[in-house]
Queue: 2 jobs
Job 1
Amino acid sequence: MTPAKPGTAPASLLRERIRRVFREFPGALAGAEEPVHQLRVAGRRLRVALPLLAGKAGGRRLRRARRILRDLTRAAGAGRDLDVLVALFDERLAGLEEVSAEQRELRRRMRTARTRSRRGLAAGILDLDIDGLRRHLRRLRSRGTADSETVLSRTGSASEREGARVLEGLAAVGDRYDPEALHALRRRIRQLRYTAEVDEALRGREAGASATWKKLQDAIGVLHDVHVLAEWMGKQANRASARGRTALAAAATAERQAFEAEGRRLHRKLLEAGPADLAAQAMTVVTGGDPGPGSAAKPGPKPSSSSPLTRSSYRAAPPAPTGP
């Protein structure tokens, strides 16, 4: 994300967040992959920013606008997850010396599922009360935003509250390989990242806490994507087996095992990076003090491009064996 200008005013930041959402609508309605992704991201950013920037943090219009934005990001997500899975599987197959007929069929099935999910994308978005969203946002802007001091107080409180929950969640998961539990924490981490972006924009700071939260968000996100792909392959194996297609079932099982192994490798890299330490560091930057109970250790340095959290290229396993 392009850094905001130093000392961005709350009203300017809110206007920019709103524009980013509606800028992506034409491309998203056409089903273009990148605009769909950007619409989803912009909608999430605005949903987090609204209660931080609005003059009245808990008003009826604000709640309604956030509800429509939630539905919008969900509608835009239809098919987006399959875009990610297709890219992951294509990356794996590209690293193999030979791709079997069964692997090609699995790829075709995944792409068919993605196409099917995209068909209702435009209708799903247009079924939402977009006019109502515009009306609510226009009214919120006309009523004015909170002053910078109030917004910064809100970002600090939100970061402290949600950050403590992340630390508690990380402590509860510990070293256990639990992609679903980590994914639930990732949602909070994403919210913390967008909260930090608001804080940094108003202070005129370069990305600090938001960059650290993004590292955690991305690392857990890739791990979860690989886990979901392994689960998808497992379902394909079960269906193929039920239909007596032993070669396809064997290929899908081998893919499930390969992606499960990759998920555990990514999990080890996540643990090596010290996620609780990074979370504590990010909290300290925004709150300006003690991250509170649940912090496992003193904050570490800002992760660099060589951090264990940085995703390396997928290490492809040998081609799946074919059955009789």
Job 2
Amino acid sequence: MTDFIKKKYQKLRNIKLNSRAVIFLFFLFVSTVFWFLNSLSKNYVTELTYVLRFKNYPKKKILVGKLPTNLKLKIEAYGFTILKHKINPTQIPIIIDINKKLIEESEKSTKHYIRTFDLKNEIQAQLSTKIKILEILPDSLIFQFSEIVRKKVAVKLNIKLNYTKQYIQKSKIITKPDSIFIEGAQNIIDTINNVYTVYKELNDINKTINDFIEIEQFKNLRYTKNKVKIIIPVEEYTELNLKIPIFVENIPDSLILKTFPSEIMIKCIVGLDNYKDLNLDMFRAVVDYKSIKQSLNKKIRVRLTKTPKEIYRYRFNPQNVEYVIEK
């Protein structure tokens, strides 16, 4: 019975002690909060980092170096204001009007700078009225600007064309415009003679292409056009087979040269629109009597000296023929 009473007494004592501990911790917490709030209501001096953005670049100059990305402000502000910045460091960037404050180091130098002291009022106007700027670091923002040079360059296509079977490119690809102006620093412009379009692959082509394609652009250059129009004429084709007589050139009047065979077979690729217009007179196959001395055997080479512009490709056989000479 005595042990039971002792246990109950000990339990009640522990509960009493625990209650005191809770009360103590509560008042400790409340006093800490009041102390913290009181501290935040005071003024402090600290450094804050701000992101920079720029506007109004010099019209007759182009940037050739990296822009400054941020600056540090030594500020005086209430603890609440500083804490807000620390908790949420993402803030609206500071906008700097370059053209207003830019100083050229010398006429021949590309180096320019802005004294950050001169930006104090401009920056202060963009900050909270609860923040007072004491110092701006660094003391200068450095820029590299060069005089703009203009140059006309050709536009080169960077494309791959895959045609549907029995279709072919009918004529030269048209690029509009075929050249553009680029602007940039002299040392960069001097190395560029052409600009290229972005790579593009066209598949299953079976009709004329009218399309626009972007020009590949690089930093520190300005382009008068950012895309060009391309026209790719396309038509269906077929194969044409013709027998062409062989003519002899540079033979004396007292001699006769006969070839065996006396004709060649030519196979050519032609568009359907021009298929019916082709005839034998549009081709000329010849052998040259003067080349006999250079021949190591009793054959002479056949050349095609005339072909119509309407055909795309051709091949012929035989390319060498036997011959006899008669007086």
